[in-house]
Amino acid sequence: MATDQIRQMVNFILQEAHEKANEIRVKTEHDFNLEKQTLVHEAKLNVQDEFAKKEKDREIQERISHSAEIGACRQKKMSLRDDLLNSLMKEASSKCKMVAGGKNYDGLLQKLIVQGLIKIEELEVTVYCRSEDVSTVKKVLPAAVEEYVDIIEKESGVRLTPNVTLNEDRAKDLPESSNGGVKLTACEGRIVCDNTMTSRLELVYSELKPSIRAILFPEE
């Protein structure tokens, strides 16, 4: 009788042990599967995030590359346009040289001197010119001063007696790049009126540049 009770107790304990072991196995498998699913899901998310990051980086690089290409094209376009405008300036400069060698150059020099005297508004003035223009300027200078005095007298009623002289230092004559014309100075060089052909051309070019661009590049 006692042996049967012991056997029953042993069987009961073994049954409990099996059931407990089975519960632990089931729970372990469930936890494992749950952890596995979690890890797989996290791995998928990481892969997706990594792909999205790489895709975003690729798009950014494409935009940077595209922007760089556009910038390079614009730069090249601007460079070509500047080259064209510079060539027009060079051509205009060569035309200025032709004017300086023309038959009406004496009268032009006189007008440039008169205009310079009006702009500079001083009584002691020195006139500078190219070495090759010295004789011409000497010839027209008295008439230019007289014309200036007449203009001022007509406008203001005052008869001026300006002392306008030609620069005597040949080392200070205007360079050939001036393309002719004159430069007037007063107050020991502190006041300057540049009325050279090159200066006049640059002034006109600056004023007309928007119009020139509109004609040459109407698509802007």
How would you describe the overall organization of this protein?
By secondary structure, the protein is of the alpha+beta class. The protein has helices spanning 2-100, 105-120, 134-156, 197-216; strands at residues 124-128, 163-166, 181-186, 191-196. A four-stranded mixed β-sheet has the order 2-1-3-4. Strand 3 (181-186) and strand 4 form a beta hairpin. The protein is rod-shaped, with a radius of gyration of 47 Å. The termini are far apart.
Summarize this entry quickly.
The protein is built from 4 helices and 4 strands.
Along the chain, the helix and strand elements come as HHEHEEEH
The spatial strand order of the largest sheet comes to 2-1-3-4
- Could you tell me the number of beta strands? 4
Number of helices: 4
Q: Calculate Rg over CA atoms.
A: 47 Å
The helix content is: over 70%
Q: What is the arithmetic mean of pLDDT? A: 82
Shape: rod-shaped
Q: Catalogue the unreliable spans.
A: none
The N- to C-terminal Cα distance equals 114 Å
